[in-house]
């Protein structure tokens, strides 16, 4: 995202040139816009420039270099547009609007390096860190918020946590049909070159309204918004199948997790060559409680520097994993569309593991990696859940229906999609391919096959 201002209006307007939304304008003389601009320029928000939106996905889709910074500004912009539309069917105060836009801007503030993958291996949840950054008086974000209104940091944290008197407002940021998903689907689709994520954003926005009664307090879709919403949900399904669950991305992430686990083992045993006490990555891997200052030093660059140095480690396993990730010499993948606990599949994996153990001994856990993923791409609305993800549609006769009840395509997305993956060095492929899944009579629905069309 390019930040620019143009004369003669430079003293008043700020123009943000965005890949997805075109020109995003902030008015310096508008108190809410001025607050947002001050937040954008804090150290904590600028850190998001150094964290890729899609983590290691750029190893498959070379254009996936966009950042959490650009995404967060896009979510703020879309939240404002959604509120503009919702104000036609519900009262939205200036305070509601400010808090929702600010929460949208800051919702990803706590993300760690390579986005979600660091959460899995370092045990850091970005939601909790987002809250800490907003509420900690030592941060610039907290100072900016508190200088506007002493109670604003707490209210923003509550909004992000889905605690607000008007329950529909947090769902503008995080729900099934929200500014976050609308932005990342379009942005990720554009930047990866995968066109399945494109949908009619303009028509979708025009179809949104608010339903507030004794049972509901949520954003719903009007009759004219049904078809673009259906297309949006199908776009999300295809993006998960083709990009977010891409087998090679999985392999890179599994190897990254194995790399960090190996480094932690060596650190604990005193055998990690590169282990300076002042390095935030080393301090975090040591298992000590993570200080906020250390966490804010973490970004993609910090971990990449460690990986580059680890390519020269004396430990062969760590050095090899680091080299493979740095030079994109990734493990091969075998995918099964079945739950990991399927008896036949569990038996097959055990046989494969024993074969790999015979070759690698105790290091097998770094050479034979397996991961599972299960998703349901659409879940019905449940008002008892904090951030219920269903979508309700107001039909032409005024009645309210769940979208899957009137769309066969969306109804099909309620199917559970289990996936089980093996990752292993290419030189072991022939040995593992000799274990034929067909011999176990799993059935056609469990046969291992490609998840995505890209074979990279």
Give your account of this protein's structure.
With 456 residues, the protein is mainly α. Among the domains are: 2-208, Orthogonal Bundle (Hypothetical protein af1432); 331-377 and 416-456, Alpha-Beta Plaits (2-Layer Sandwich). 48% of the residues lie in helices and 12% in strands. It has 22 helices and 10 strands. It has helices spanning 31-40, 43-46, 68-86, 94-106, 116-122, 126-135, 140-148, 152-160, 168-173, 179-192, 201-206, 226-244, 247-268, 280-285, 292-297, 300-310, 316-326, 343-360, 364-367, 403-406, 408-412, 429-433; strands at 2-4, 13-18, 22-27, 208-212, 217-221, 332-336, 369-376, 392-394, 400-402, 416-424. A 3-stranded antiparallel beta sheet has the order 1-2-3, with helices on one face. A 3-stranded antiparallel beta sheet has the order 6-10-7. The protein has a two-stranded antiparallel sheet with strand order 4-5. Strand 1 (2-4) and strand 2 form a beta hairpin. Helix 5 (116-122) packs parallel to helix 13 (247-268) and helix 13 runs antiparallel to helix 17.
List the helices and strands and how they pair.
Blueprint lengths: L1 E3 L8 E6 L3 E6 L3 H10 L2 H4 L21 H19 L7 H13 L9 H7 L3 H10 L4 H9 L3 H9 L7 H6 L5 H14 L8 H6 L1 E5 L4 E5 L4 H19 L2 H22 L11 H6 L6 H6 L2 H11 L5 H11 L5 E5 L6 H18 L3 H4 L1 E8 L15 E3 L5 E3 H4 L1 H5 L3 E9 L4 H5 L23
Antiparallel strand pairs: 1-2, 2-3, 4-5, 6-10, 7-10, 8-9
Helix pairs in contact: 1-4, 3-4, 3-10, 4-8, 5-13, 6-8, 10-12, 13-17, 16-17
């Amino acid at each position: 995202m390019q930040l620019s201002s143009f004369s003669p209006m430079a003293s008043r307007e700020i123009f943000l040139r965005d890949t997805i939304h075109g020109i995003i304008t902030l008015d310096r003389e508008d108190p809410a816009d001025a607050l947002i601009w001050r937040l954008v320029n804090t150290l904590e928000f600028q850190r998001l420039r150094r964290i890729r939106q899609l983590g290691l996905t750029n190893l498959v889709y070379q254009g996936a270099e966009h950042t959490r910074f650009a995404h967060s500004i896009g979510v703020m912009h879309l939240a404002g547009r959604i509120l503009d539309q919702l104000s036609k069917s519900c009262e939205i105060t200036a305070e509601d609007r400010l808090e929702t836009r600010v929460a949208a801007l800051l919702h990803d503030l706590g993300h760690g390096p390579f986005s979600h993958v660091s959460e899995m291996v370092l045990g850091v949840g970005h939601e909790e860190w987002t809250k800490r950054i907003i509420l900690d008086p030592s941060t610039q974000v907290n100072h900016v918020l508190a200088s506007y209104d002493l109670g604003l940091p707490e209210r923003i944290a509550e909004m992000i946590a889905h605690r607000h008197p008007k329950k529909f407002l947090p769902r503008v940021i995080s729900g099934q049909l929200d500014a976050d998903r609308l932005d990342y689907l379009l942005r990720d689709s554009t930047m990866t070159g995968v066109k399945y994520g494109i949908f009619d954003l303009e028509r979708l926005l025009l179809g949104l309204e608010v339903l507030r009664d004794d049972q509901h307090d949520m954003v719903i879709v009007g009759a004219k918004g049904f078809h673009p919403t259906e297309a949006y949900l199908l776009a999300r399904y295809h993006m998960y199948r083709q990009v977010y669950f891409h087998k090679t991305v999985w392999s890179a992430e599994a190897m990254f997790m194995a790399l960090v686990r190996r480094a932690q083992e060596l650190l604990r045993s005193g055998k990690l060559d590169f282990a300076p006490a002042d390095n935030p990555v080393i301090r975090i891997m040591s298992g000590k409680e993570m200080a906020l200052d250390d966490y804010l030093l973490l970004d993609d660059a910090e971990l990449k520097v460690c990986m580059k140095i680890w390519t020269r480690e004396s430990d062969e396993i760590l050095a090899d994993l680091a080299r493979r990730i740095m030079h994109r010499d990734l493990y091969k993948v075998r995918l099964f569309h079945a739950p990991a606990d399927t008896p036949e599949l569990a038996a097959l994996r055990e046989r494969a593991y024993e074969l790999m153990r015979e070759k690698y001994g105790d290091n097998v856990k770094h050479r034979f990696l397996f991961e599972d993923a299960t998703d349901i791409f659409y879940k019905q609305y449940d008002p008892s859940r904090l951030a219920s993800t269903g979508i309700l549609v107001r039909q032409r006769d005024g009645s309210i229906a769940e979208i899957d009840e009137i769309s066969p395509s969306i109804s099909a997305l309620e199917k559970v999609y289990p996936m089980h993956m093996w990752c292993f060095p290419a030189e072991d492929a022939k040995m593992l391919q000799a274990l034929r899944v067909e011999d176990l009579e799993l059935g056609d629905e469990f046969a291992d096959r490609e998840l995505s069309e890209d074979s990279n």
